[in-house]
Each structure stands twice: as structure tokens, then as C-alpha cells.
Amino acid sequence: MTREGQPAAIEDRVLERLGRLRLTTTRETLSALLSEAAREQWTYLEFVDHLTRREAEAKQEKRVRMGMTIAHFPTVRTLEGFDFAAQPSVDERLVRELATGNFLAHGTNVLLFGAPGLGKTHLAIGLGRRLVELGHSVLFTTATGLLTVLSKAESEGRLEEKLINCVKPRLLIVDELGYMPFERRAAHLLFQMVNRRYERGSMMITTNQRVSDWGTMFGDEVLATAILDRLLHHSETLMIKGESYRLREKRKSGLFRSLDEAEARTAGRSQSKEDRPAVGRPKNVDK
Asked: Do 236 and 124 touch, CB atoms closer than 8 A?
């Protein structure tokens, strides 16, 4: 082998080994990295530092993308995009603490209570995305979607398999619990899922129903108590109060004022018609 052929042969061997080690980014950018190292006159340690940093960052980005896909978030919402000033009832300190993911180590549940439109889903997705970035597995589902899946699995004789799958994610987010009434069988399926995750994996639940109304929501006080007992045993709660984001934005846009004015005009026309003599009504003329 000639001396001129040695560098090419070495590079081929290095690229082959990088492929076997699954260092994809380094393999794809090695030539550019070597040129940059020569131009900047990096030391051997600086070269290794740049190489490992870029590979680690690429793997992190790939892992996060995959985690987001697996989580099935319905939309992109972030904690940075949540307006805490607009919702002063939200305990921002608690949200920041939950964002560290420490609660997952103890199987602690998180329950977000509040009327529709106050940002419960936004917070749930934002926290879920942050935990994916930290390396935790997350699955997002609506209560209706979850119970549909469990009910179908039961009818197909695969309920045990599906319940095992529900335990796998480090965090299971169940959105919009209580927006639709529960049938008794659906409530039992939810209990089985909650019972499987009890002290094994954390759940995050958003609901518009107060705890005192869960018996009515499930149609069974005993079952509701059993579910609540497991959810609240190790838990953090966020109570959100105030006006709906959507209604607030419509108010700012002047839509409510326009509607009020239109309603007033309609009422005025109705009043005028009542005062106006009906067609063909005989006049009161003294003879």
C-alpha cells in the first residue's frame, strides 16, 4: 500500500467503526469536523470535546423527537407559553417544581382542577413535553379516548395486555376527565387502570369536576371513592380559577360588545313593534 493511500484507508476503517458504534452524526460529519479541527488548530482534547458534544446533542434531539411522537400530544404547548400573570390562581412555584420531574420518583399523581378554558390542558402538555426533554416516557390521552381503547381491548379479550401497556409510561396524562358522563362499565375500566398504576407510575389528570361531584360523575359513590383514594394518596393538586382564556380573548376583540349591541338593537326593534299599531287596527275616532 502506498503512503498516499494510507489516510483514505484509515478514514474508511474509522467510518466503518463509527457505523458499528452507531455514532451516526460523527460518521456523517467527520470530514467537515477534521477540516475544522485543522483550521482552528484544536488540541486532541478539544477535538474529542467537539466530537462528543455534537454526537450527544444529535442523539438528544433524536430521542426527544421520538419521545414527543410516542407521547401523542395533540398540539404544541410549552410552559414558557403559559401566561401565569393572566391566571394568578395557578401556583407557579408548584408548576416549576413539577417541571423538574422529581415527583415521578415516588409515583406521585398530579390533579388539575378548573372550569373549561383556564389552561389545564396547556399546563399538562407543557409539563409533559418538559419531562420528555428530561428523558422520561410520557403518554397523553383524553379520558374518552382511553376508555374507548380499554373497552375495545376488553371486547377483544386483550384488556390485560392493554392495562400492562398503560403502566409502561413513566407519566400517563389523562385529559378532560368528567367532560362526558361515565357508564358503569367504563368507570370500572378506569378503576382497573388507576389501580394498576397505583404507586408504580404517576398520572396527571385534568378535570372540570370537583372531588365532591365524582360520585355523580361515575354513577357510583363507592367506585368514585376507590379511584380517588388511589389518586389522592400521593398527589399534588392545582386549582385554577378565573375567566376562560377563550372568553377573555373574545371580550378583548370586542365580540361581546358587538353581540350586546346587536341584542340591544333587536330588543329595541321588538319594543317598537309592540308600540306600533297593528295593520288594519280600527282607529279610535269619536263620532
From this structure: no
Query: 14: which residues sit within 8 A by CB, 6+ positions away?
Result: 30
Nearest to 168 by CA among 141, 143, 197: 197
How sure is the predictor about 278, in pLDDT bands with cuts at 50, 70 and 90? very low
List domains and CATH numbers for the chain: 92-239 (3.40.50.300)
3-state secondary structure of 140: strand
User: Is residue 277 pLDDT above 80, yes or no?
Assistant: no
Q: What is the pLDDT of residues 214-248, one digit of tens each?
A: 999 998 999 999 999 999 999 999 999 987 766 66
Find all residues with CB under 8 Å of 88, minimum gap 6, and list them: 242
Give the relative orientation of helices 24-40 and 6-20 as an angle to the nearest 10 degrees: 140
Cβ-based neighbours of 83, under 8 Å, separated by 6 or more: 119
Contacts 24+ apart (CB under 8 A), 242-249: 242/86, 242/87, 242/88, 242/89, 242/118, 244/115, 244/116, 244/117, 244/118, 245/86, 245/117, 245/118, 245/119, 246/117, 247/117, 248/86
Rounded CA separation 127/110 (Å): 11
Query: Which residue type sits at 279?
Result: V
CB neighbours of residue 176 within 10 Å: 19
Phi, psi of 260 (to 5 degrees): -60, -40
How long a stretch of residues is the chain?
Answer: 287
- 248-257 pLDDT, tens digit each: 666 666 655 5
pTM here is 0.80
